[in-house]
Amino acid sequence: MSNSISIKKHRIDSLQALRAIAFLAIFVSHVWTKLGMLGGWGVSIFFVLSGFVMTYSYYDKTLQPSFSNNVRFSLKKIKRLYSLHIIMMVFASVNIIKTAVSSHSVHSLLFYGFTVITDSVLVQSWFPHKDIYFSINSVAWFLSVCVLIYALFPMVLTRIKRLTKMREAILWMILIFIIQIIIGLVVNRITVPETVSDNFAKWATYIFPLFRCGDFVIGSCLGYIYLNKKTDLKALYATLVEIVTIALIVFTVMARKLTGGIFVNEGLNHTQIYTVTSVFIIYLFTCQKGLITKILTNKVTVYIGNISAYAFLIHIVMMKYIKLISNHLFGRSPGGWILFVLSFRALL
After folding, report:
1. Among 15, 102, 137, 333, which is least packed, fewest CB within 10 Å?
2. What is the crossing angle of helices 36-58 and 209-228, to 10°?
């Protein structure tokens, strides 16, 4: 199979719709904490989809991997969101500083100063404690991971271009997934002092940048497969696969609630249980043949998908301010549905 692919690139609106669905899953998980497992699925979609879209967009371009080129490429990709990231840090810091000052806690102020540094240079995801990787604007850990992902992409793309058969890409995906499972099983048995990490297995398989690079490379391999596909899915077959995939997504999401078995393994239930269905749903949405994809791809979902990166960085801080205002005016935080509606309306 030739590496020189000649296809007419076009914007895939259905992927923006899928991006919107993933964001809404994360958003809902932050409004109703009992639905936190939806957030894990949404994050998995984001990472795999990033690898897919990057490969789809850059496959016919030349990126020369080197330390300086990789850093420049990463900074270029991060730049469009970095200003918003800093603005959100400022808004999120107001209440943090107020609390620290009112409690006369020098330790809290010093720790806050440390997290300002880690968050500003986007290295918070490298620290295994949630007080650091979820500090200030908690969702910014995702941007921290993207710094590494984008820096490694020129090397990933170079390796992807050396593939000669789709079978090789599939084998790479399977190998990476198996390695992730092994890592999950191992880290779940590692005991780490709580002062170092409150949940080491979760950090190692959900937050740690090197681990999430695996999801990104899986998405890159999927992009290669899509660009090299020889046949299109039939509409009926695509719809049937969509139904099965959605059923599996529901099962894996609900499986997090099970009280026994593999799904309570902290090293597996934050990332790996979502990877396979993420791959399938991304491919199905890209092909745009199934009935479900066509129904879910509309002006509203495409619009939400277009602003999802910005909404993702904003929504947690916005929700905190809505709660703060509600507590000040009414003496209590708004209920889940009111918080969802107010926050969602403000984001749009």
Report:
1. 102
2. 50
Query: Which amino acid, 163?
Result: L
**Which of 48, 90, 4 is CA-nearest to residue 286?**
48
Is there a domain that residue 299 lies in? yes
**Confidence (pTM):** 0.92
- What are the two backbone dihedrals, phi and then psi, of residue 251, each rounded to the nearest 5 degrees? -65, -45
Cβ atoms of residues 290 and 238 within 8 Å: yes
Q: How many domains does the chain have?
A: 1
The DSSP annotation for 150-208 comes to HHHHHHHHHHHHT--SHHHHHHHHHHHHHHHHHHHHHHTT----TTT-SSHHHIIIII-
Chain segment 42-88, per-residue pLDDT in tens: 999 999 999 999 999 999 998 999 999 999 999 999 999 999 999 99
Q: Which range marks the domain in which residue 62 is found?
A: 13-347
From residue 254, give the alpha-carbon distance in Å to each of 180, 216, 245.
21, 24, 14
> What are the tokens at 83?
């200003």
- Tell me if 5 is assigned to some domain: no
Closest CA to 145 of 98, 100, 57, 78: 78
Structure tokens at 253: 């999401």
6, part of any domain: no
Rounded CA-CA distance 230/79 in Å is 37
Residue 4, in any domain of the structure: no
Closest CA to 24 of 233, 305, 219: 305
What the block records as the tokens of 56 is 């789809």
Q: What is the mean pLDDT of the chain?
A: 90
* CA 41, 44, 50, 55 torsion-angle sign: negative
pLDDT in tens, 80-133: 999 999 999 999 998 888 777 777 678 888 999 999 999 999 999 999 999 999
State the Rg of the chain over Cα: 21
CA distance 170 to 14: 23
Residue corresponding to tokens 């490379």: 217
Amino acid residing at 226: Y
The CA distance from 26 to 347, in Å, is 14
